[in-house]
Request: fold
Amino acid sequence: MSLCINPTCPKPNHPENDENRFCQSCGSQLELLGRFRVMRLLSDKTGFGKVYDAYERDKPIIIKVLKEDLNYDAKAVELFKQEASVLGELHHPGIPGVEGYFLYQTREGLGLHCLGMEKIDGPNLEQWLQQQQNRPISEEQAVAWLKQLASILVLVHGKQYLHRDIKPSNIMIRPNGQLVLIDFGTARALTNSYIAKVSSGSGSQTSISSGGYSAPEQMYGKAVTQSDFYALGRTFVFLLTGKHPDTMYDAYNNELQWRPHTKNISPALLNLIDWLMAHEINNRPKTAEEILQRLSQFDQYPNASSAATVNVVGAVVNPKTEILSSPHTTTLPPQPVCPPEEEKRDKVPLLALISALLVVLGLLGFVALATRSDKYGIGGSYGQAPERKKGDKVTVDYFPYQQGKDSQGRVAEFNVAVLSVEYKWLLGSSFQIKHNDQTINLDTLKSNLQEEGIQRIMENPSEIISVGTASCEGNVATEEARALERAKQIQLLSKKLFNNNRNLQGYRLLNLGQFNRTDCKSNQDATAYQRSIIIIGVRKKSEDVILDEALRNRLEEKPFADFKLEDYSSGSKEKFKTIPSNL
Reply:
């Protein structure tokens, strides 16, 4: 069936489209450039647009189409065109061939940016591991794949490009077992001026990052060659454990505890993977050739350089290769498990439950009478009331400076700003926020906050603390990692908002972890600011004040609205700490 790609077409899959050159519903051309005929939509979940299955006569290809609402976003168009340009310079069986960039015009005159490229007949590594029931790969397989990918990076980096988005879903497997690195839309040219700026710390580029895989420096727009190696290492953490890196992240110690989840992997390979993803850039390999040289120690594996070592759907499998599992195996979704708290509640005798409820209701009534005040603007609040700064585009809830003391009585003052009452974190995301039914990035919020004068509202802090929190939809380790990622993204936003504030001396991260109150529901906030974007300002510090102790004292003794540290997995005294962050 021929599919019309006009976004306003009322019936893009009209049954008579197959026999015609023009859509029988809207009149737009069905043969793009007179060559490509689109057959079906493969995905509309990508960040930039839609991906279609198409044919050029009998040759299957892929057509990418930029979302029409990004047509006037110069950066989005630049990145989209860039993929065709980069792929045109890279010729390797591990890199997709490209048909080229072109502009398609609908019957109504709407221009659509399009990219034609080779179709890779096989799954990506994320899909492939799911087909294997998430069973980790062997050491021999890991070495073979590392050699393939390092060889691809030799070419990419040799042509002076960074990929910047290496992860399992961006690596596909051809039927012969050859790995293919895809999605060069975020690639970055390594020009001399770019290298000089990053080396001196004087410049940065657009932050492109994928949670769990991107290097720390890349989140601040300072990607370098070694950033690709870090993502490569994180990809093999996933393949060697069958688990997403975020699920093994220890937020308290800021460490990835992945080694205990591997089996039958030699210390040499474990050390190599850790070398790839060392926190300090200088401790990682300098070049992809250096990775290949170190991989030569594994040449005892007879198939280490062979491409045909895996079972790919529809492919001819090397007879020496053991088939791990049927490619058509369906993994059942995890079944809901009743939390221990619910099991205990079910066992509580009815009379005891009623008695407990009466006691609680009585206490709540007493607290309500004791703390009732007309100045509180939020129902159910028990702490400091906000000063609501309502603007044309955003509403900021501001909690003025309050003093906090450390264990020695030294003081500092802290304020709190909820950067927008209307904008909240998108569930499950570390980079996107939601406003009504729209999903946007933090840069959109930045421009709105600048218009409302956030610097003036915050009353000239000397430090900014970015607060990272996550909801109760996942396990604790994953959500604590997500909360840290969110804190970093808020830090990037804060730097842009306060970049001309001469009083500002530094930034810190505060990872409070997962919201874990027993009444938490993933699709419904239990407190006023559970998914809000929050920063804390610091000023008037006593000499040698222990900032974490003073901040904790402020939040416990003079909390804002209905916020409670005890509601968060990292809110305890043992886990509560800020992390200085040099952006």
Observations:
- The mean pLDDT is 80.
